[in-house]
Specification:
- There is one protein chain.
- The protein is α/β, with parallel strands linked by helices.
- The chain has one domain: Rossmann fold, CATH 3.40.50.
- The chain contains eight helices and 14 strands.
- The protein has a seven-stranded parallel sheet with strand order 3-2-1-4-5-6-11, sandwiched between helices. Strands 12-9-14 form a three-stranded mixed sheet.
- The longest helix has 21 residues.
- The mean pLDDT is 92.
Length: 295
């Protein structure tokens, strides 16, 4: 069993990760802005204030630090620029410094498959070897994720780094700013949804339960620094919306737009070889996620 320090343990993936880690017998300490539920070990600190972290972090050795925190309202640029830099760059760097100083073995950083841009078609999946896009081709939020990966690589000689690039994670409790909750709200309200080519992007989404399990599977493993984390099923955004229609009981208003639909399919060969395979099918995971939204 491992001694884990988790930042972002109350988010979509993080809360499920904490549950699974505790169930597996791992010794878990959470970094939180406020005192969590009774019975959990914790450190109270604010990742939005990276300069305050050194004085609040415990001077003890952990086997792994898992950084799953992210700034809220990720699409709210420019208002979110400061929080995005603090939570996606400055605080991970500060925790990496602390991890090296205290003798930690492994640092896992929650990144995004979006930093590589769309693929070239169904036969050209986004692989881990794809270059990170420059700022001109990314949103500000995704650019902070890409730049943080580059900066953290400087710690590689002293620390095993794992960049887990998640692709379209969904599940109960997801914030309304993310893709699936936004779409569900539009279906419920009868608001039009624009889909390129009539189908929208091709993607392989993953349920938070699987994302957490595969993240835990990275503990103690060695190999390439980057691993895609995505679902086992290829689907279009239109098919996802059709599933939402059934769960909500209302037809979506779809506006087909010109141009080809982008492809955001992750190559999951490395994930399967190194971490395992997702277990929750979309047909099972989507209704439970929507039920939690109380639509």
């Amino acid at each position: 069993m491992a001694k884990l320090f988790i930042a972002g343990g109350t988010g979509l993936i993080g809360s499920e990760l904490v549950r699974q880690a505790a169930g597996a017998g791992h010794d878990v300490t959470l970094l939180c802005r406020q005192v969590p539920v009774e019975g959990q070990r914790f450190v109270v600190a604010d990742l939005g204030d990276p300069q305050s972290l050194p004085g609040r972090l415990p001077q003890e050795r952990f086997d792994a630090v898992l950084y799953l925190a992210q700034a809220a309202e990720h699409n709210a640029f420019p208002d979110n620029a400061g929080p995005a830099v603090a939570l996606n760059i400055a605080s991970p760097v500060a925790l990496c410094q602390w991890a090296v100083r205290t003798g930690c073995r492994q640092f896992i950083y929650a990144s995004s498959g979006g930093i590589c841009g769309p693929g070239g078609g169904p036969q050209q999946r986004i692989g881990e070897e794809w270059p990170r896009q420059g700022a001109a081709n990314l949103s500000f939020y995704l650019s902070t994720k890409a730049r943080c990966e580059e900066l953290l690589l400087s710690f590689a000689p002293q620390l095993q780094l794992d960049f887990l690039r998640y692709f379209f994670v969904y599940g109960p409790g997801q914030r309304s700013a993310f893709l699936f909750p936004r779409l569900a709200q539009k279906v419920r309200a009868g608001q039009p949804i624009e889909l390129a080519g009539g189908t929208g992007p091709l993607l392989n989404p993953i349920h938070a339960t699987d994302a957490a399990a595969l993240t835990l599977a990275a503990l103690g493993t060695h190999g390439d620094a980057v691993t895609n984390v995505a679902g086992a099923e290829d689907t279009t955004l239109l098919d996802v919306i059709r599933g939402m229609e059934q769960a909500i009981g209302r037809a979506a208003v779809i506006n087909a737009t010109a141009g080809p639909a982008p492809v955001y399919l992750a190559d999951t060969a490395r994930m399967k070889r190194r971490l395992g395979w997702p277990r929750v099918p979309l047909a099972q995971g989507l209704p439970s996620a929507l039920q939690a939204l109380r639509l």
